[in-house]
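Sample pair:
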Amino acid sequence: MKQLLLLRFSAMGDVALLAPVVQAFTQRYPNTAITLVTRAKFSVFFEQFPNVRIVGADFDGRHNGVNGLILLFNDLRKIAAFDMLIDVHQNLRSSILKSLFWLVRVPSFTIDKGRTEKKALTQKNHKVRRQLTHSIERYTNVFNAAGFSIQPAKPFQFPPFTSANDELAGFLNQQQINTDAPWLGIAPFAQHTQKMWPFERFSPLLNHLLSGPPLTIFLFGGGAAEITQLETLRQQFPQAIMVAGQLSLAAELALISQLNGMLCMDSGNMHLAALSGVPVLSIWGATHPDAGFGPWGQGNEAILQISTDVLPCRPCSVFGNKPCWRGDLACLNIISVESVATRVQQMLTAGIAK
């Protein structure tokens, strides 16, 4: 069996976006095994695919620094004699690993992240506006360049996370859930402030949504700070169910797959929901779907944003990690509670019909 080494260390959403590519590969090339180097916690995205081995990269410990990468290189060489390396991360760590494998004559292929065209899209003046290649398609292009012709499913849906069935069932049994009401996930957070709709607006939003027909709301997030914020929301609306900090990633994904819709930002949760076959309503601020990070397999119905005709400064960055040029985050603050509520109700109607 041929052996392929695949590198994508982080972030969660970017690693999850590999799942449709890896699935398509395993279906088309059953006689080639993949060893994927990523964070160990992301192995759940690939556990259902045959001939896929996950090597957990410990960049905070054993694999830290150049010496740590040499240890990782030696660890990998003990696993298999690799025929090829595919780098879909393209950072300093992956470059060092490619150089080490080049010394032992392992050929490599590297993703084109489109940095020049992304810079043109996000520059302050004279933006070059066009729809750029989606991240999943960029991953696919590397495999094609390496001689592996694949076509990821669009839309895609994670295979069932059967290992989490008992955990999720136990969690749901502890809740008081109206099984006849639609299930809505709400994930208010993203990595950067420039991608987050003001948190204080979620209280009037929930008040609006819960004043209508019966609705079950699940609150998603991660980390102590986000859980604290969500807890303040749950105290106002005790019927909302706190998911953050309660479930393993596998059980959380199993729950997401049962939702009728997910309200989120341009974030990892957007990708997890879209890759679970769930209708998404994603709010966009400083970033823009044209950069190639939109919800896979979904269209304009999954995007809520202020038009670039109204705010020609958008997008001001690819990842939302740069200060607002205007200084007022109008791209997020202009979006009203009423507009979000209307779009959520439209999404849920479509999700129930589906």
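The mean pLDDT is 97.
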